[in-house]
Design brief:
Elements lengths: L9 E3 L10 E13 L2 E12 L7 E8 L5 E10 L3 E4 L25
Antiparallel strand pairs: 1-2, 2-3, 3-4, 4-5, 5-6
């Protein structure tokens, strides 16, 4: 993840020729996310893909962490396979997502 992400910026996440050639593009800096743990505003949304697997695209949602950086909250697998994975608990410090940003369901992003 970029230190200071900006809307529309694309960046390479990793590179090992023929094995790991992952890219991401920042789609939103203000996405709303609804997961089992709660509803959140102000999340960063990326589109992630690799030329090694054409057609497999994921939207990932991150939330800025209080100690700095970003924590992965949600992965929506869009093409090539369909799935939704929520990352809470083991990948996030306990209590990192307080219930202070409730979002009405009609305001949640659908991208």
């Amino acid at each position: 993840m970029l230190h200071d992400p900006e809307h529309g910026v694309s960046y390479q996440q990793e590179y090992y020729e023929g094995e790991a050639e992952d890219w991401a593009k920042i789609l939103r800096l203000d996405a709303a996310v609804s997961i089992d743990f709660g509803d959140y505003l102000g999340c960063l949304m990326t589109r992630e893909y690799t030329p090694l697997s054409p057609g497999q695209i994921e939207h990932k949602f991150y939330r800025r962490l209080s100690q700095g950086g970003f924590g992965l909250m949600l992965v929506d697998e869009l093409k090539g396979r369909t799935g939704r994975v929520e990352y809470i608990g083991a990948t996030m410090p306990e209590g990192e997502f307080p219930d202070e940003f409730p979002v009405p369901p009609e305001e949640l992003c659908s991208e």
